[in-house]
Write a structure and sequence with these properties.
Elements (H helix, E strand, L loop, with lengths): L5 E12 L5 E10 L4 E6 L1 H14 L26 H6 L1 H12 L3 H4 L2 H6 L4 H4 L11 E4 L19 E4 L18 E7 L4 E6 L2 E6 L3 E3 L16 E5 L18 E6 L5 E6 L2 E6 L3 E3 L6 H6 L27 H7 L1 H33 L10 H7 L2 H7 L1
Antiparallel strand pairs: 1-2, 1-4, 2-3, 5-6, 5-9, 6-7, 7-8, 10-11, 10-14, 11-12, 12-13
């Protein structure tokens, strides 16, 4: 049999996932030339990056040279915040895009880029989940959705953030900002890098440089988890600030607080401090090429290190001291309880010993044995002997 190619791509709907954070993925049923059918999941940002690469590979067919020669279908840029409404509204557009894609000339529809993008990945077979978090919610596309595509499309207002300081990009995938710039958030990553758009510019920006227009940052950050979650260090980091931790690859630590800027509060033995979340991986979670690639990037700056920050909020970001984290952690509390219990046991043992010794001191002296008659006769005086005799 020749090279594999795709016969048909059907959009089934989307899935709302809650691990490692809330996000949405589209479900595609991919039918191959060998009559197999595979289910794959893709984020919209992934699909759009694939679309841009496809246009670069075929500049004539994408209309970059002459708009009249364009045959590659259009796909709107990620203008919407990745919420449920925007995810649902894009379904009609994506369904039409996939139908047009597989019907392009074979040099496009059967190229390696298209084939590899829709191949099954390990996380398609067994998505990473957490038993303590809600199971994914599935939303299937109605069968007549293609006929009523206008019913599920429409604009949505993006969540807008303001830049609190100037930021100079250090790679092509990033976007430079000036203090006061208003950007729309397309995707929030736990690594501390957010995908933003500003007019015609799009790119990754450190979350530390952004603040929401409708409220302070702490309204979005989850509360500390003093019970701790087990993570494994995937890349070493040497502390720069006093409240950071120096850890080595392979160390097992506990995550106490996940912050939006990508710097999480972690505990190693009795020490707590900040550490880049992009260098951590949940214990037992498999590694992926995407995560490995992410770790090769530089760590995002911390909010506290940004100079001349011009915040529009009077209420400053909630600060929790490392001592507070340490004293409230369940492990610390349990260790203190163990120490107190040990000290109490020692005190009880000492008290019992003292009581026993005290009781001994209060006891009556032993009565000496009565001397024998011969001993008395030998030791007594002559007067006593005469009386006895």
């Amino acid at each position: 049999m020749g090279d594999a190619f795709i016969r048909h791509i059907e959009l089934l709907g989307y899935e709302k996932r809650f691990f490692p954070s809330q996000h949405y993925v589209y479900m595609f049923l991919v039918k191959w030339n060998d009559l197999t059918e595979k289910l794959v999941y893709r984020r919209f940002t992934e699909i759009y990056e694939f679309h841009k690469t496809l246009k670069e590979m075929f500049p004539i067919e994408s209309g970059d040279i002459n708009a009249e020669n364009r045959i590659i279908p259009h796909l709107p840029a990620p203008k919407w915040f990745d919420g449920q409404r925007s995810t649902q509204s894009r379904q009609g557009t994506l369904a039409e895009y996939c139908y047009a894609l597989v019907n392009l000339p074979h040099k496009i529809s059967r190229c390696l880029l298209v084939v590899n993008f829709f191949k099954v990945r390990p996380d398609d077979m067994s998505p990473v989940t957490d038993s303590q978090i809600k199971k994914p919610e599935v939303f299937l596309l109605p069968k007549d959705a293609k006929k009523n595509a206008s019913d599920i499309t429409g604009p949505i207002i993006l969540q807008t953030y303001r830049a609190i300081a100037d930021y100079e990009k250090s790679s092509k995938s990033e976007m430079a900002l000036k203090a006061g710039d208003m950007v729309d958030i397309v995707e929030k990553s736990e690594s501390g890098w957010w995908f933003c758009q500003l007019k015609n510019k799009r790119g990754w920006v450190p979350a530390a440089y952004l603040e929401p227009m409708d409220g302070p940052d702490e309204s979005e950050e989850q509360e500390p988890n003093y019970a701790g979650e087990w993570y494994v260090v995937q890349k070493s980091y040497t502390a720069v600030e006093e409240d950071e931790l120096t850890l080595t690859e392979g160390d097992t630590i506990e995550v106490i607080h996940k912050l939006l800027d990508g710097w999480w509060v972690v505990r190693k033995d009795e020490s707590t401090g900040y550490y880049p979340s992009m260098y951590l991986q949940r214990s037992g979670e498999p590694n992926t090429p995407e995560k490995s690639e992410l770790r090769n990037r530089s760590v995002p700056p911390r909010r506290s290190t940004i100079r001349n920050a011009k915040s529009i909020h009077k209420q400053s970001r909630k600060q929790i001291s490392q001592e507070t984290y340490r004293r409230n952690s369940k492990k610390y509390i349990q260790s203190r309880r163990n120490v107190k219990a040990s000290l109490q046991n020692k005190a009880n043992i000492i008290s019992e010993k003292n009581e026993q010794e005290e009781n001994k001191s209060k006891a009556q002296p032993a009565v000496p044995p009565r001397p024998s008659k011969d001993l008395i006769m030998n030791r007594c005086t002559e007067s006593t002997r005469r009386k006895i005799m």
